[in-house]
Amino acid sequence: MIQTFKSWQARRQLRDPQFEFLLAKPAPNEWVSIDCETTSLNPKQAEILSIAAVIIRGNTILKSSSQQWLVKPSGAIDPKTIPIHGLRAQDVAHGLTLHDALTQLLYFIGSRPIIGYYLEFDLAVINRQLKPWLGIALPNRAIEVSGLYYDKKVSAYRPDIDLSLDSMLTELDIPRLARHDPLNDAITAALMFLKLKGQRN
Amino acid sequence: MSTLFEFSALPYRSLKPSERERFESALDIQYFANGHTVIAAGAPHHALLILNKGLIAEEENGEVLTVYSEQETINSKALLNETAQQQWVAIDDSLVFSIPRELILELIRSNPQFGAYFYQDIAVRMTALAQQTSEENELQALLLAPVTAAYIHPAQWLSADASILDAARRMQSAHCTAVLIKNAEHIGIFTQRDLRDFVISELPARSTAIANYAHYRLHSVADDEPIHAAMLLMTKHTISRVIVRRADGALGILEQVDLLAFLTQHSHLIQSQIERAVSMDELAQAWSHVDKLIRQQHRQGVKVTLIADTLRELHRKLLAKTWQLLAPAEISANVCLLCLGSEGRGEQILANDQDNALIIADGFEHPDLAAICAAFNQALIRFGYPPCPGKIMVNNPYWRRTESEFKILLDEWQVQTHRENMLHLAIWLDAYPVYGNKALFARLRDYFYQGLVENDSLLAHFALPIEQFDTPLGFFSQLRSKGGLLDLKKGGIFTLVHGIRSLALKAKLSERNTYRRIEILKQKDILSPTLASDLRESLAYLQSLQLKYGLIKAQQGKLLDYGIELAQLTTLERDLLKDTLAVVKRFKQSIAHQFKLNTL
Predict the structure, then answer these.
(1) A188 falls within a domain
(2) Are B28 and A61 a contacting pair, CB within 8 Å?
(3) What is the CATH number of the domain that holds A153?
(4) Chain B interface mutation, best of A145, A194, A200, A201, highest count of B Cβ atoms under 10 Å
């Protein structure tokens, strides 16, 4: 009921009808894992430098059809973040405009539930940019892998759960890919999702 | 571009950078929780699956055939047929990389080395692998080796007043192409070319002093300079030899032919050094290069049978020369030195043991003979041939007999068919006459085959040892080992060699070499062409594994044996070993059936 109301409200607020597919009923058993690299660690200022997205269908991470977009930021890159994502101004100089990149991203993810690690930050940055021209924030269901992990691990006897990526990867026995490559990070989140989902069944 | 996939393992290592990029971009990742089916029996195989993490079992009719662990490719063979009877099940939470079948088929076509991994037919697989590219930096490494790595001829000195005739005589006696003289403070060289020019001038050789015809402008290199420095000098001055200055002041001569021989790794150099040797020390010096020759040929990807061909000649030359240095000609004229076993078959590359025997002409006796034989075995030990554990050596009177005594022995072997006699007979069948009066051996061989009557009992007892060693291939085609060690000889080489030898005895073939025996058995329709080719390739594969890991052992200073550690093998090597042992097992069963071994 609430879902229907929300969807109706979103449909009313959506400024560009070409994106109505975002509100369609998602295909069963499909998800999309995303990760962003940004100019800053503050979600109110951060600009997107690069986004990667990979679709999960059933038990398969469709890496072969994954996408990655480089974005040319309007402002300067915070030098403190460059060692983290490795993207310098000249690396993203030939990137897409933010509008083009987000348009392509929306078409890629469709109405699938979105998966990520520390997804809140990525979604905050995306939505901050998206809302002014789309009228709405991303309507997709968001699945935070550390949330799934917490639900699974927490108990009355063990109220404190270490949600650092490293300890989660160790606990879930997931191979470590080179970090801070947005595609690898998206794949890592997807792996955690599949593993946690598999264990729940 | 960051890569998920680990390309360091075979066969993926053989992919070129552009192929790796396509491979990586076509890759998907699948997750299977413990207990979930990865590929159902009879289901289509659309993708090649490589296990990244976890464990997956291959099962057929509820039985586990194989268990795959990390980095192993789980369905390479099923991929070609698109379906398989077997099913694959995750027995631990497993991550799998999947690559579309179309891309794999394309890579198989474009990259034969990669393709080799997928061929069903072991012979086809081996041929494709034989095309492996040799290391490119090989030649460069050779060029940078010090000149002393090549053969340096000791300088032949003549006095300044020697005549041209003296020079010619010295060249003949010392098998050299140049002599050096010291004229006052100057060193001069007189070469074969100078000799030719002198002959044309028609001056008297006996009365002309060499000093007037020698060259005093010598081109030389220090002994620690690289080969290519010597090569440059030769090209620059169009000369065929350069002087090598040793650190201690002595001089040597590097000939162009020896330099080329070094570069092309022709064994003729070692061969001529063996032939030229006049003492055990020189022989040992010549033989010390053999190890390097084997390593280089092996590194360059020369097929094991070709290395064996080269080495067969060298081994035999060494044995002959050793005997020649020890025994006076009057003894050699009355005896025949034989090499037996693998040495006789010409299949010994690294010296695993020495098997030898001596036939003495009837009525010949010599007080030193026993001592010479003992010295011969000692010399071989010095050259690196360990003594034969079964004491099949000329210092053992059992293997040092007169012709008539050998006849008695041959007769005995045919009648008393116990295990020891059968092994002696097997070794005898591989005998090759190395030196001395070879007619002694020819007569004995004829005597044996003429006296050999159709005798099923003898043949069965002869073939029986084939049953003695278990083929280390488990029921589920898993390799079996003792503490991770697998014995290549007991596990496979002996079975193949002895099975073929039994067939050869039955067909009364006088061939010794196993590959030659297989060829003739095929021509006589005793072996089918496919079986013959499978046997050939299987034996070559086992021998190449033995060589590869034998060389590693030798480098570590370990004793040579036939054991290999399974953990050392690459996935591809393990797969090929399984295929090979399957051939061995089949062949063994067919021999057991043909020779009715179950009735013994």
Answers:
(1) yes
(2) yes
(3) 3.30.420.10
(4) A194
